[in-house]
């Protein structure tokens, strides 16, 4: 028993030695990456940090040019001033990981020069076809559109897109107004997509194919947005399904067979 206990303690020690240590600074950067534009107070609330600690790390990240401040109109911050919110800077996005992009961009430029714009479109389509194949079974397994969106986001997160969802107008009196937004806080090919927007277009087409509805891109980081945001009209599809179900019910009622009343021969003879 003692030997077994010593072995368990040794395993726990080895695990502690090999487990990656995530610094508070990295946690703050991850919060900005996933939820930006985000205010300092919201970061503190999410991470359980004091206001002083959040400001210290934000100042450090700003000094390293990894994040930048955005003034968000409509979020009043006293005296009618726009609120300060933080987003990951272009340098921060680059540092998070897209080392191969310079080579890829040069190769695509040459491909475009030799074979034309259609060649780049075909290349982007093939790249995202592999994404569709990897995600399809997981997304198809979800029984509802909301579930499919959540499954898609989980798959995107495994590939490092730092994705999340937001419900819009979920409690609106008109249920058709309910929508979901897929927000991607990191794009590993941001600089490439800035020069070749075909990659953004193909990604949106894959989302539409996987979800089975028309989606709309509201913003992309390649075009200067803080995040890549995709609009999914979940409420409109719900209302349409309800209307179709109601129509099918009406049709079944209209073609329902009439009940026939049979009078026995014995009763007929008796009455006569």
TrEMBL record:
Region (Disordered): 246-272
Organism: Micrococcoides hystricis
Domain spans labelled HTH marR-type: 27-71
The protein's name: Helix-turn-helix transcriptional regulator
